């Protein structure tokens, strides 16, 4: 009997110790999430949240949702840590990563999952992880302005608060610089920008879509205002509609369209094409603007603001070198930075 009482007391003490050691955070959905005292393995539900773990604490990533060989990443990129490229890909819950393999993910024993707070995708994620009792922390990162807060939250979750705060402050500095530059441009002088997606350039994002947000942040005006209807947000547009709206600038992530549009007589009537103001979005290791809408948008708005309104003031090469060092954990030369920026 005494032995049983002693054993029970020991279990209670252990439970109390575990409770003391455990901690909690309030996530971007306003949920209080209980976490282990010490996290050694984390995962994400889609590229944007997974990549937040990568920039804050790459050594803690247990898996990736999308393989590096996918179209999200530049082919053969050398601007990611070798360890990241070797991580098992287990799928995700939305976007190109959709099709999560829960068995494979749980076999890696993640102690926390970082997920995207987005009305299109939250419920399936919660349903999946509530069944297996893995804590899920939602981060807000739809808009560029959300990214510093998302970085801070991930830093807190992963017990890397100093690292998260330093990156968040740097992101805020970069955003502030762009905002200050754009604020000096009168509204009627801001350029009308068409975001051309696909090899024919006839898909786009409407102006209220979070996918288009970096272009607005950099001082562009959408030629196709409207609400985002789906998570992906892409809308099919006719060339006739583009000719009517006559954008002053075209920005595209598609190398095939970029290479062909200037030679295509059907586009010759578009002001951006006539004025040679069609720009290819940098995308090594990831698209600077969109797809995935990741932390790279911080550097992306700096690049795009300089493209739209060049003034010679920005040290974009230096900013790119420091960004790749601090966020991507890789050292690049000035020549590599200029190549990345298309200069």
UniProtKB/TrEMBL annotation:
Keywords: Signal. It comes from Terrimicrobium sacchariphilum. This is Iron complex transport system substrate-binding protein. Residues 1-22 form the signal peptide. Residues 41-312 form the Fe/B12 periplasmic-binding domain. PANTHER family: MOLYBDATE-BINDING PROTEIN MOLA, VITAMIN B12-BINDING PROTEIN. It comes from the Bacteria. InterPro entries: ABC_Transporter_SBP, ABC_transptr_periplasmic_BD. SUPFAM superfamilies: Helical backbone' metal receptor.
